[in-house]
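Narrative of accomplishments. A recurring question from our advisory board has been how the design workflow behaves on a single, concrete structure rather than in aggregate. To address it, we present the structure tokens for one chain from the evaluation set, followed by the sequence designed for it. No filtering or post-editing was applied between the two.
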């Protein structure tokens, strides 16, 4: 259980939205294994289940609140289009809603290309993670935002490497 946050973080490559991930999330956890405290490693491992996160880590709580608010806004938009009550689909604290989150959800919903809409949502998630990382240089909070960004990049790598023709044939048959 070492505390080599400065060494670890300074050795990590920069992540850019739309680029190929430099390594997998599992490899990232391996890199962190002997360099950070065991409790912090446990929090890092919980990042994959961030949508069900109920811990007390402030950065994950803020990101989770953003994610739930964004999903709730999408629910409200879709429910109004189908003329159904959105309240039975709303999760978490429905009171957390910033005007910019409504704007993000509307922009994504109005995009006729589903893949581009998803990209818009992930770009906003990336931006939210950038905001959460402000002021954090060599600590757990920066590692958490890095891990979440890495998961976004992995998701887009899976999307971009999918065999689109076979998927289309599978759907049509």
């Amino acid at each position: 259980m070492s505390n080599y946050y400065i060494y670890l973080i300074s050795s990590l490559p920069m992540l850019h939205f739309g680029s190929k991930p430099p390594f997998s999330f599992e490899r990232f956890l391996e890199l962190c294994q002997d360099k950070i405290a065991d409790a912090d490693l446990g929090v890092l491992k919980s990042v994959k289940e961030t949508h069900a996160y109920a811990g007390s880590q402030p950065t994950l709580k803020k990101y989770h609140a953003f994610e739930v608010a964004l999903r709730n806004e999408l629910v409200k938009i879709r429910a109004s289009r189908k003329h159904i009550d959105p309240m039975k689909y709303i999760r978490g604290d429905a009171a957390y809603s910033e005007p910019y989150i409504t704007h993000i959800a509307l922009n994504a919903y109005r995009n006729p290309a589903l893949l581009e809409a998803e990209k818009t949502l992930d770009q906003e998630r990336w931006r939210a993670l950038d905001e959460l990382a402000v002021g954090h240089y060599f600590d757990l909070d920066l590692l958490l935002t890095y891990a979440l960004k890495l998961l976004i990049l992995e998701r887009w790598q899976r999307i971009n490497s999918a065999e689109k023709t076979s998927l289309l044939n599978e759907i049509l048959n």
